[in-house]
Design goal:
With 106 residues, the chain is mostly beta strands. The strands form 2 sheets. A 3-stranded antiparallel sheet has the order 1-2-3, with helices on one face. A two-stranded antiparallel sheet has the order 4-5. The protein binds zinc ion (2 copies).
Length: 106
Amino acid sequence: MGDDEPAAGALPYAEVTDEAYAARAAAGFAVREFEFAVQLSGRCPRCDHSMTSTLVDGLYRRDASVVASDPDYRTVLCECEADHPARPLGLRGCGAHWTLRLEVEA
Ligand SMILES: [Zn+2]
Ligand SMILES: [Zn+2]
């Protein structure tokens, strides 16, 4: 796998975030909303590999018992399929994470 990945050298795994990640991801990611999940697909703003992330949880759903005065902010992790050195076993992606604001329509 990964024949079409950019040959930018081996970017080591690192759990990092940057405000620019969120901006780039917001601009470049496709968002599909399902009833109880949101699927994001695009290129990781750190490693530039294509990735798909599915967010599933109850927080996304509107719950009358939760005071939700703020928009929904969710943490998205890079889940690319490429190899990144120094990545712990069992994890995927390059370690980049960023915050996504989900704009949920009423
Ligand atoms: Zn990657
Ligand atoms: Zn990445």
